[in-house]
């Protein structure tokens, strides 16, 4: 149901689930503002929603000060208007180790249990399996449903002799329904190479073609959604497991424990695992893989992609100056910000940029120089290895 029709018929509805995000500094999304104003009118009587059963699920990010503020306030307002809340407000957190699904899965399970008790006829309705994807044109790209963007540009921006290969890559997302602001982050899910997966399975004495079906054994969230049913060990390790995060539970020798402690430490977490494991690594079963290895975390680059909201906020006033400090590749979000601000006629932009060498890794130097010449940017640079 659309928000306008919900706003018109809310008093006559019997069951409503509201899923909402929080934007800016505790503000409702743009498409929710009219509904928000309607719901918070002082003229609404206290018992106007006494016939309504409902629940509120918030999609948020705990790195923001007002985490899921809209969901919390909406839940409280519905209670004030007499609605019967089926569940405590759900507070999904994008910063959780398992992502928002850590809250979504158990919360939705409880929601459907409540609904089934109220409407027994729903028990006969079929549900979509976890591995059945929603058609792309019906969903907004997300971590669960990334958009397969087409690459349109790929160019190295560091000097060919520089030891770091840094590239500027552009994608066509014109038909993706993705909405973003300057400073937002492109995210993707990487995978392990087939060679590493094969070596990993050999070292841990796992059959890569063994099949299983992932089920939750308690009320906690299933750590990985979208797995095929059945799933092979090869697919699990290649597409989902972070092989560099071994734990100590199954080590059998002191040497093995020392090695596993090394790989589990902050200093060793980025190293390749398979070629350095002791030869007597304990055999594991599929049942233990998800206990020992966390999921691969999204890397904030490339495709298949979705957008994560950034934390940068720029002033709306045209005359307010903005000071940006972006050394190395950290200058990337400020490039998009400067492009957007200059297109809006905002020329009070100050950028501090630093890198190793002016000739090796001064990213977008020609673009910055042009903007300085056109009076759109004040630029200050420092090159640590050119002193």
Notes on the structure:
This protein is an alpha/beta fold. It is 26% helix and 16% strand. The protein has 10 helices and 13 strands. Strands 1, 2, 3 and 4 form a 4-stranded parallel beta sheet that branches. Strands 11-12-13 form a 3-stranded parallel beta sheet, with helices on one face. A two-stranded antiparallel ribbon has the order 5-6. Helix 1 (3-9) runs parallel beside helix 2. The radius of gyration is 25 Å and the shape is flat. The relative contact order is 0.10. Residues 263-282 have low confidence and may be disordered.
Tag the structure with descriptive keywords:
387 residues, alpha/beta, 4-stranded parallel β-sheet, 3-stranded parallel β-sheet, 13 strands, 26% helix
Described by strand count, sense and barrel closure, the largest sheet is: 4 strands, parallel
Low-pLDDT regions: 263-282
Distance between the termini: 63 Å
What's the Cα radius of gyration?
A: 25 Å
State the order of secondary-structure elements, H for helix, E for strand. HEHEHEEHEEEHEEHHHEEHEHE
Shape estimate: flat
- Strand residue percentage: 15-25%
Helix content: 25-40%
Number of helices: 10
Strand elements, count: 13
- Return the structural class: alpha/beta
**Average of the residue pLDDT scores:** 79
Q: What is the topology?
A:
Blueprint: H1 3-9, E1 15-21, H2 33-39, E2 53-60, H3 69-80, E3 84-85, E4 90-93, H4 101-118, E5 150-156, E6 167-172, E7 185-188, H5 194-203, E8 211-212, E9 231-232, H6 233-239, H7 254-264, H8 286-292, E10 305-308, E11 322-325, H9 332-343, E12 349-355, H10 365-373, E13 378-383
Parallel strand pairs: 1-2, 2-3, 2-4, 11-12, 12-13
Antiparallel strand pairs: 5-6, 7-10, 8-9
Helix pairs in contact: 1-2
């Amino acid at each position: 149901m659309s928000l306008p029709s919900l706003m018109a018929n809310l008093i006559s509805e019997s069951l409503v689930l509201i899923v909402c995000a929080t934007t800016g500094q505790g503000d409702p999304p743009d498409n929710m503002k009219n509904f928000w104003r309607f719901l918070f009118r002082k003229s609404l009587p206290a018992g106007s929603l006494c016939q309504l059963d409902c629940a509120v699920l918030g999609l948020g990010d705990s790195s923001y000060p007002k985490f899921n503020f809209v969901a919390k306030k909406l839940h409280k307002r519905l209670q004030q208007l007499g609605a019967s809340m089926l569940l405590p407000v759900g507070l999904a957190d994008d910063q959780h180790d398992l992502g928002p699904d850590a809250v979504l899965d158990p919360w939705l399970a409880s929601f459907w249990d409540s609904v089934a008790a109220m409407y027994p006829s729903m028990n006969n309705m079929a549900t979509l399996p976890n591995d059945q994807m929603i058609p792309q044109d019906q969903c907004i790209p997300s971590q669960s449903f990334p958009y397969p963007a087409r690459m349109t540009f790929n160019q190295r921006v560091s000097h060919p002799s520089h030891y770091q290969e840094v590239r500027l890559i552009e994608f066509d997302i014109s038909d993706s329904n993705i909405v973003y602001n300057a400073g937002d982050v492109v995210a993707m899910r990487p995978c392990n190479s087939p060679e590493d997966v094969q070596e990993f399975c050999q070292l841990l004495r796992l059959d890569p073609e063994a099949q299983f079906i992932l089920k939750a054994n308690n009320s906690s969230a299933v750590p990985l959604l979208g797995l095929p049913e059945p799933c092979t060990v090869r697919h699990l390790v290649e597409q989902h497991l972070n092989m560099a995060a071994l734990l100590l539970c199954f080590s059998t020798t002191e040497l093995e424990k020392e090695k596993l402690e090394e790989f589990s430490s902050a200093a060793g977490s980025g190293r390749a695992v398979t070629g350095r494991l002791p030869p007597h690594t304990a055999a594991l079963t599929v049942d233990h893989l998800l206990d020992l290895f966390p999921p691969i975390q999204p890397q904030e680059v490339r495709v298949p992609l979705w957008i994560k909201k950034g934390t940068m906020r720029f002033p709306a006033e045209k005359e307010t100056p903005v000071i940006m400090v972006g050394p190395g590749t950290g200058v990337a979000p400020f490039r998009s910000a400067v492009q957007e601000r200059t297109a809006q006629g905002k020329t009070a932009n100050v950028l501090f940029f630093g890198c190793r060498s002016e000739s090796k890794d001064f990213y977008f130097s020609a673009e910055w120089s042009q903007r300085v010449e056109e009076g759109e940017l004040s630029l200050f640079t420092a090159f640590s290895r050119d002193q």
